[in-house]
Amino acid sequence: MHDVDFGFTEEQLLIQDVARRIAQEKIAPSAEHFDKSGEFPLANIQLLGENGLMGIEVPAEYGGAGMDPVAYVLAMVEIAAADAAHSTIMSVNNSLFCNGILANGTEAQKQKYVRAIAEGAEIGAFALTEPQSGSDATAMRCRAVKQADGSFIVNGKKSWITSGPVAKYIVLFAMTDPSKASRGISAFLIDTAREGFHRGKTEPKLGIRASATCEIEFTDYVVQPDELLGDEGHGFKIAMGVLDAGRIGIASQAIGIGRAAYEATLAYVRERQAFGQPIGAFQMTQAKIADMKCKLDAALLLTLRAAWLKGQGKRFTTEAAVAKLTASEGAMWIAHQAVQIHGGMGYSKEMPLERYFRDAKITEIYEGTSEIQRLVIARHETGLR
Q: Which ranges carry the Acyl-CoA oxidase/dehydrogenase middle domain (predicted)?
């Protein structure tokens, strides 16, 4: 175990405060509208960008807030507690898009792609999943064939692309040498305004409905040599590194959802009367409150641990998986119990409890399912593959 210090700095608390203010003043009041309509909340996302929340760990020279992973966790929790869909968009821009380019991109790539996203001028996306390959990313069919001039011709489909319908730039993973399996995957920077790029229909989803998701397709799309991200054949390694960081974001999102459900429940059990007393006085309800509190605290501390390790430049793959698994399953359990405690009101669209319940589910699925997190953790612990 490492000595971990969670004495938050003034800067970390400041960005948490900025996130909380925007979450409460702008996002929470509009969450129900966006959930019902499925519209993309562009104005709110631009506001988050203008306040440094779309590039929290991005250095100031690339238009970001220049903060650390712990600050990112604190801000993400606040946004997710107001609305999970907004935090999904924020997570993709921060974790999946900016992280990979900062770690592997050239100076020119950082200036062009990271700055636009970190400042909130454009939306970014991350394209790894395909219709036939989710958890098994090496079964990739999207092809990028190298030409004599160093450019690549891309053909293929990607599915479940968060922010796909609105993204200007996308980090794409495609097979450049199928004979090498995972070592034959390369990463590319895609401009969606270019010929050969097509967006499919926006997916109708159970939860995070304001976060637009679609299938994308490439037909003889030309990638220039300077749009290769990192070295040829290093795409899988880049993707896995990015997903490690992304899991900190999704764990934070799950904490925010869980916290919102918990706080609503806490208020409800104090006020709601049954059999002549507040329902919070009944032992069965109290047991659920205690378990909610434990799961929430455990998730937060484990997520801060992973973020702190990342900020220290230490390995954090297992810690990120532990955090994501604990936080996502905790959020789902808390939201489930919250609906149960609220009874009929929990099941009603009149209250946000059913939205928390729907939103919590996705945290157990994307950026590595709970099953994949268990594999990552167990393989690390046993040394067996």
A: 125-220
Report pLDDT digits (tens) over 185-230.
999 999 999 999 999 999 999 999 999 999 999 999 999 999 999 9
Nearest to 80 by CA among 328, 311, 297: 328
All domains of the chain in start order, with CATH = 10-123 (1.10.540.10), 125-233 (2.40.110.10), 237-382 (1.20.140.10)
Q: Transcribe 141-196 into DSSP letters.
A: --EEEEPTTS-EEEEEEEEEEETTTT-SEEEEEEES-GGGGGGGEEEEEEETTSTT
Per-residue confidence band for 261, with pLDDT thresholds at 50, 70 and 90 = very high
pLDDT in tens, 115-133: 999 999 999 999 999 999 8
The count of C-alpha atoms lying within 13 angstroms of the C-alpha of 272, restricted to the half-sphere facing its C-beta, is 17
Distant-in-sequence, close-in-space partners of 108: CB < 8 Å, separation ≥ 6 = 226
Catalytic hit among 57, 78, 354, 367: 367
For the question of residue 122 being annotated catalytic, the response is: no
Q: State the pTM of this model.
A: 0.97
Q: What residues have CB less than 8 Å from 156, skipping those under 6 apart?
A: 130, 141, 142, 143, 174, 217, 218
